[in-house]
Design brief:
The chain is an all-alpha fold. Helix content is about 50%, strand content about 0%. It has helices at about 10-20, 25-30, 35-45, 50-55, 60-100.
Length: about 150
């Protein structure tokens, strides 16, 4: 994870400009420091690295890096899904082939002319939907007496 930190961070004035030039009071509140501290950082155009990193991830550069990372992860996982699907298809084809050639008989078969029952796959699970209403009805307490 540490290798994902940006190698280059723009100067403080550029970061603040990119996030819309908020007043020092808003920056101070967001970072949990005093307004005087933020004003000093702006005046010297220097802030501690954790502050610079925090502001960086709010800028278009930080957001672009996050988006790029998410896109690359999605492409990689989609590729892995495709690869696993192809592997499942290949294994199913091999299993089908083995199922067709597996019953070749044996010299000591006790019933050579009796066909074995075919093994059926287990039934597919039918998804059960939860009721859409959580309202419960109470049984009626009115008792009618025969008169």
């Amino acid at each position: 994870m540490l290798n994902r930190l940006p190698a280059h961070i723009p100067p403080l004035w550029m970061l603040i400009d990119d996030i819309g030039n908020p007043p020092p009071k808003r920056i101070a509140k967001a970072l949990g420091v005093t307004e005087r501290t933020v004003t000093q950082w702006i005046r010297t155009d220097a802030a501690p690295r954790p502050v610079m990193l925090s502001l960086y991830w709010l800028t278009r550069w930080g957001q672009s890096a996050v988006h790029c990372e998410a896109h690359n992860a999605a492409v990689m996982h989609a590729g892995m899904v495709g690869c696993l699907r192809r592997e499942i298809e290949l294994l199913n084809a091999r299993l089908d082939r083995l199922g067709r050639i597996a019953d070749f008989g044996a010299a000591n078969d006790p019933a050579p002319n009796v066909a074995l029952p075919t093994v059926r796959p287990p039934p597919r699970a039918i998804p059960v939907r939860a009721p859409t209403s959580t309202k419960q009805t109470k049984p009626s307490t009115n008792k009618q007496t025969a008169g």
